[in-house]
Give the backbone structure.
Amino acid sequence: MGLSQHLCSPNGAMRRGWNGITISRDTIHIKGIELGYANPVLFERHAVGGEYGAGWHSVGKGTLLTTYIPDDDNERPFVVDKRDLTDDNNVCVVYHNPYDNVVDLAHLFFKRCLDAKVVPYIVTKKTVFKWQEGFWATMKKIFDEEYKEEFVKAGVMSEEKSELQHLISDAATMQLIRWTGGGFGMAAHNYDGDMLTDQIAQVHRSPGFITSNLVGKTDCGTKIIKEFEASHGT
């Protein structure tokens, strides 16, 4: 079409520009119509980070060095990763996950699960991707300190089973097929959330039967921004 450059995803631009916290994707239920899940399924997909904002380049043999340079001049730069590339053809990919807003994501997720009276689960691949441990740790801390008792009081969880549950992403894909009774919520990183909500849409019969709502914040952090889109954006 004669375009001079490849433009980035408009969804990604909105999520970054509006300080995206989460993309809430929930099942839609219509009285008298039997769909995939009998009861609501809630999902929070971290709105930023991961592969979507990755920098990449095709390269040959050589050495790849990823160096972190702090803004604070009192801190020393250091090498995050160094690897030798021995193939003639390689693709180098670099991305990061911003975690400051995971606290906001946790509050949004647990409040919504509590209001809907569904059991929350956190999904990561932290057994292999050790860098994902921080996501789980933050979610668990917020749950234990501010929501655990509330879930028990509301009768959503019992005293004996009030611990926040973690699911490995592989297990989550299987449970989404098995748990057709619904009545649960999940929160995950950006890419996992994208894939898992695709699966929820298929189990629930159509992408048209799940919502997709971006939740962000103004730059000053005092107001919430919401953008409602089709289940796969623009």
About this structure: Helices lie at 10-17, 102-116, 133-153, 169-178, 190-203. The first strand starts at residue 22 and ends at 24.
